[in-house]
Amino acid sequence: MTDSRYSPFETHLGDLDTFADGPPHALFARMRDEAPVMWADAPADWPASDQPGFWNVTRAEHVEQVSKDPVTYSSWFGGFTMRSNEIGSLEVQRSVMIGKDGAEHVRMRGTVNKAFTPWRVRELESSVRTRMTRTLDAVLDSGRCDLVLDLAGPLVTSTMSELLGVPEGDRGQLDRWTDAFLSGDDEIAGGMRGDEALGAAAEYLMGLLLEREQHPAEDLITALGLATYNGEPMPREEQVGVFSQLFAAGIDSTKGTISNGLLTLLEHPDQLELLHQDPTMIPAAVEEILRWSPPFTHQRRTATCDTELAGQLIHEGDSVVIWLQSSSRDSRAIERADTFDVTRGQRQCPHQAFGGGGRHFCLGAGLARLELIVFFEELLGRTRDIQLAGSPERIRSCFVDGYKRVPISFTPVRHRDVAAASSA
Ligand code: HEM
After folding, report:
1. Could you tell which of 247, 362, 374 is best to mutate to test the pocket of ligand 1, judged by most ligand atoms within 8 Å of the CB?
2. Which end of the chain has fewer CB within 10 Å, C or N?
3. Distance of CA 404 to CAs 90, 91, 145, 252, 259, Å?
């Protein structure tokens, strides 16, 4: 075990430009091979109040080790992003479920767990499908649209809003606050800082909670207002924290996976054709899309004591970044990791897009999978010849990987045509 911060080559992983054209996969491959746990100094333009640098964890086995040891690797201490203030201040990060440790985390998660059981998620399938059908109906005849703005955005935002109980007229505003909080991209954020966005959303949600106290409804916000844990009512600020976490975590992630997924399929037309020919392969394809291009590049933990990881001595207080985009392409964990193959099947696709396991593993994984499967089933079932109709624009972020705009064109397929084709 070495007692120096092992840093055999430069990475620039703290620099936004490194992600401007997509994840730095060649760099990640080198790190996995030569320095699977390595230190990077903070870039010169980080303020002195930030941490001096961070450890980078790039292999699947070590990502899992860190994720499953929340006592040694805290989410609360330094937040869950590479820089504590990357998406809102540390205080804001600590207010949501993913930024909590121990009993407080268990209490928050325990209160909303029930809304995400496999049974509850299955119940949502028909409403998600109806929403996707209507969303597609609105653009189908024109033969062109923006994948993110016209399809993925409306589907994902309305699904989350309906589950939580956000009135239709308020959804666009909440969506913009979420984008501003998570991406940090100036254009999307519209000049709003992450803290301001989450503060505005929290204030709005507080109002909604109070309103539901007077007029209860069949939604998660009413349930949260009534929630108790071990017989105690949940403090109001925790209710707001749960709500903002769900909204923030559930939207950009799923939107990002849809845009990354369709672009990947367009780059691999043989794989897209397989899905057109046999749509029963779509659930397995969704796993491969999640593995190939996870929407969250990384998560971060902070060491609570001196510890050792892959032969490196990590000091108490050191920041530890787990790169999910790297670990999901680790050939030690996945065969032919550098091949995008929708036929590999779920069991051959042990990706870490939803985290490396452990207590913070994505609570909405079942719902996300449902939305993604329905999205691709409906889109591919009702269109042919999907093509790019302009240049996709990436979100400028080293935390969220996805696009703000993806113009596409396609040939609509009527249900009649599908029926005729299948009876021919
Ligand atoms: C493709 C879509 C999604 C991806 C890739 C994704 C990924 C992730 C990741 C990587 C984490 C952190 C795991 C860790 O640090 O161990 C996480 C946490 C979380 N996700 Fe997701 N997520 C997605 C969709 C959703 C949806 C739809 C919801 C909610 C409705 C959701 C709710 C949450 C929550 C509440 C947490 C925090 C869990 C905790 O701290 O205990 N996510 N997600």
Report:
1. 362
2. C
3. 26, 28, 13, 10, 9
